[in-house]
């Protein structure tokens, strides 16, 4: 833990507990990051968890959730203005992180924009809309993370971080296809479904196996191409943080590979990575963290 005053140390510890309880797949990678960057990532994750929970709160009507996001945006702006934005200890850790790493407010504003659009999301008309949403809720995370991890001066790294975030989000969308539909959310492009002569209901019922497989194969390839385009990212991250980026990516790439091996699984269940694969990733990531190479 960072050497700091007890209140701030306690605030960071609270963020760490949120990550351990809620981060699931990300926990394995985040804990490999050396201090003080690890605690900074915990504070960023806690912020993202809070904004996501505000948008998804099922007990509240849309307008109440919108008001909650508006208040959260105001607190975030206050934090960037140098204030401790609320009584929750989290804000102390968040304010320290954004100052310590000189983060800009833009990605945080865009993330809130994405959550606001998700309040009324029902169907996705086309890939451009999907790409914009992925940028707002996932590429922004990549841009924040590389600032905390530290990078070299290669001008290509920001685009790679953007592509990596989109790859992770598209993997999420495929994994959560049925669950999202039950929430009346469809993130797959409607025009691409229609081009295959399918509706989302046809896909979920697997009514035309050849068309359904062809459509999902194309969606998988979009994500796979983004992983390929961002494959050099880790080499530009500071050596002590590469294991974190590698582990988080490898878990989601593994999910995509599992989906690709049997695309029909996404209409039956929420695809998960097996324990042995997770253990293998964790073991290799620990070796990378110790060696400082990627």
What does this structure look like?
This protein has 294 residues and is mostly helical. The protein has 16 helices and no strands. The protein has helices at residues 6-22, 25-30, 37-56, 62-80, 90-100, 106-119, 127-149, 157-175, 177-182, 190-195, 200-205, 209-229, 233-236, 242-261, 265-268, 275-291. Helix 1 packs across helix 3 (37-56) and helix 1 crosses helix 5.
Please describe the structure with a list of short key phrases separated by commas or semicolons.
16 helices; 294 residues; single chain; Farnesyl Diphosphate Synthase; mainly alpha
CATH-derived architecture of the largest domain: Orthogonal Bundle
Q: Beta-sheet strand percentage?
A: under 5%
Q: Note the total helix count.
A: 16
Predict the CATH topology of the largest domain: Farnesyl Diphosphate Synthase
